[in-house]
Amino acid sequence: MASGKSAGARTITTLARFLTFLGVSALCGVLAAGLLVPGAAVSAMGATASMDFFDELPTELEVGPLSVPSRVLAADGSQLASFYVENRQPVKLNQMSPYVKTSLLAIEDSRYYEHGGIDVQGTMRALVNNIAGGSTQGASSITQQYVNNVLNEARARSGQDASITLNGAKGIGDKLREAKLAIAVEKKYSKDQILENYLNIVFYNPNAYGVEAAARYFWGTAAKNLDLPQSAMLAGLVNGPTLYNPVTEPQQATKRRNLVLDVMLAQKKISKAQHDAAVKAPLALKVNQPKQGCAASSRAPYFCSYVEQQIYNNAAFGQTREDRQALLVRGGLTIKTTLDPRLQDKAQAQADRIAPPRANPSKIGSSLVTVQPGTGKILAMAQNSRLTGKDNWISEINFNVDKKDGGGNGWQPGSTYKPVTLATWLDEGHHTEDIVDASKRRYPRDFPWKASCQTADHRVAGFYDSTQQDSNDLKNAEEGWYRSMRAAEGIYQSINTATYAMASKVDLCNMGQIAQNLGIHNASTGDPINSLQIASFIGGTEGVSPLTMASAFATFSTDGKYCAPVGITSVTDANNKNYEVPQANCRQTIKSEVAQGVNSVLQQVLIRGSGYQRGIDVPAAAKTGTTDNSEQTWMVGYTKGLATASRVGYIDGNRSPNARDGNPGAQFYGDGTTFPYVDGATVAGSAWQEYMKEVAPLYNTGDFSDPPQSVVRDSMTPDGTAATDNATNNTGTTNDTGTTAGNGFTG
Fold first, then answer.
1. What's the whole-number average pLDDT of the chain?
2. Which of 28, 93, 165, 185 is deepest in the core (most CB within 10 A)?
């Protein structure tokens, strides 16, 4: 019994093919006429509906910018990360191997330099073959393929990826539009320009768009270095990127490559010897999987994430967040940043040393961030979690920055907030050597705080009074400090009662302004710290970011000049357009003599105060900080050239790391080390010290300016001498923390 179609069916099919041939041939004749006499062709087409359709097709191809990866660079030019949806690196035609051009034209468009956009001879040959029932043949010229790629690129940019028209899936209307646009392209661009553009836009692999990216992906080389067999493989690949994928289909890829070589030999593009050697050559792939995004960054992934958020939050990069994201992955931005790899690597090592990301059963976070005083440049940003990776402690939260920049709600700064009280004290005319009454522990509800900005609806809140329910008297971390002492001693020994005695004599609203002048704000909301909440304002219980604290302390280093932290120095796109980036806007916000007075006191922290064991052998100043139960511990310190905040604590903030009173304690250093008592000087201070010892010499380590005597003491003091320093706490014990139940106080 005969199989297949009946004779009648075959006749009908052949007739249909013949009629199609006649119709399309007529259109091809029109297109051919268009190559020679475009005006005559257009007038000839007006007679029929099909000609009207063709006449109404667009006559100019809108060539938009190519989707090009964006790069984030460190200050030394090294790449931190790239962002893309199409991995592409455009290059000039003369930066491609000659074999790339000859092999592509041999297999795809051998008469490329002879036709005007449409290869009529090739089109007729393909039509006859297809109508006769042979294997389906394409007939698109390189120019037509380029047009198709440009249209697809435009659809992708507008979010219409699903509507991309692929070869073999185009209707007659698509083909006609493509043909007419090809004619227009040939009039506008030279042959070499079209070929160059095509080789930069063409799809080879989901990881490689354009010949340069393909060369680097498949062999780790540049397009200019591609040899004959490599070029032939890429030429064959454009016809079927999936079918001839050399990674997954090596046999099909080899067969297709050899076909290209056969055609090149038949066209006398290569010699027999070249052909035979190339056919025998292995594919020899050296696949280099491209990595994109901050998670793939081998250095400073969280700083990279911060930079990414700076782009997303800035209207200079687009009207909406979606526009800015599209620009980042398609716009070919070169984002130059402030990061100093020398500091970054040291900071990361210390963050990991304190609480390693793998061996960290306590899940305690450690972080360091450094800014440059006088410029606001963020030089390092490290933490011990990771954005990705097997067995790592994964966290998307950037421990060092505000919520809007990818951080959390911030961390209570504890006693690192006390320099704000000191700065206000000096700003209002008090002195570092003035005596304060640190024996006072009770501040009742009706205590007469000075607050010029309070209103009937916004008054000072908070009290310390053991005679009231749910309250206690103010506490220091240790006994023996409830006495009169110099203001300076109260700060560098971190005495809570001394700090409150100072705050009781200044305008709390001025203290709020001083905090704002230092750039201190709530990490979650961005709002100023509430100057009328005495526990939060004086004791440091509102969440702030380490970057905020490092920038605030940098203001003291520069004798009162505040610089907003910045991570980006410039952004340009693929067309060398410059974008406006956030500026440090450095300005004098604190009186120079006030800043100098603060410096003189905070230097004593590292000499005889709460962090006396954490000196770094160059002039430096610092302040320790420890919240209730040591849930958050800090060391924020600076030299003339660097200001660094080191923080160690739980990201959920409700556990104690201390190994005492039955508490197993947090484990540090990756070896199970625990401490009977953890405070700002022990662990966070250790990271700060080791890091700053290594990196401080890379920047300015000069002396701080001495404060004027008018800041140190009242010139009208009868004997002109300072009070005696009765400090006895020089044995490593620190005094950061105080606890008052029901008031949320942290020291």
1. 86
2. 185
